[in-house]
Design goal:
41% of the residues lie in helices and 16% in strands. With 199 residues, the chain is α/β, with parallel strands linked by helices. The chain is globular.
Length: 199
């Protein structure tokens, strides 16, 4: 027994093969897109986000910045207290809400040792000052026009909030404007209950 080759079918097979080959780039793109979505769903972050997450469990980078009103603020002077740093900008549409919510938390917990500072990443200090005066808070609003602090904390979205424990270690990060969420209160209380003393 032998197989017979039908030359009349060969061109049709070639067309099918060519059509499949033409679709390979599309299939490849779809597979890459699906893999990207799967990575996002699994919690894989971008390089900037990964850098921010990498801060958790490490000493918070120290800084000294001028305040819109009042004197300069140095983070290391608050060692021994729970500290919240929030990053904002006058161009950020939801930053005013975050500042207001954090001001409410600050007023509630400052007697327990909570410190809050807000760092502006505006390029123009005049815009930042105008915004800060319009959205006054009970805590210092600082100017980081050179963006050295926001780079040290790998901030890639606004508002971003960093919670630091009494030993100066970054414990929690938030990239949202929901300081009224119960998770903030739980985390603040955990920081305030921490009995680690300043070195």
């Amino acid at each position: 027994m032998y197989l017979r080759f039908d030359s009349r079918r060969a061109p049709a097979n070639d067309v099918k093969l060519a059509a499949m080959t033409d679709r390979l780039p599309t299939i490849r793109r779809r597979l890459l897109a699906l893999l990207g979505l799967a990575a996002l769903a699994a919690g894989v972050t971008t390089s900037a986000g990964a850098a921010t997450v990498g801060l958790i469990g490490r000493k918070a980078p120290d800084f000294a910045l001028p305040a819109v009103v009042g004197s300069n603020v140095r983070l290391s002077e608050y060692r021994g207290q729970a500290v919240i740093i929030t990053f904002w900008s006058s161009r950020c549409s939801v930053c005013a809400r975050q500042l207001m919510l954090l001001d409410r938390l600050y007023r509630t917990y400052r007697s327990s040792g909570l410190i809050v500072v807000a760092v502006s990443v505006d390029d123009d200090p005049a815009h930042a000052e105008q915004y800060a005066r319009a959205h006054a808070a009970g805590f210092p609003l600082l100017l980081d026009t050179a963006k050295t602090v926001s780079r040290a904390y790998a901030i890639d979205r606004l508002p971003s909030t960093v919670l630091i424990d009494r030993s100066g270690t970054v414990r929690y990060l938030h990239g949202d404007d929901r300081a009224d969420d119960a998770s903030y209160v739980t985390q603040i209380r955990a920081l305030l209950d921490d009995t680690v003393a300043a070195p």
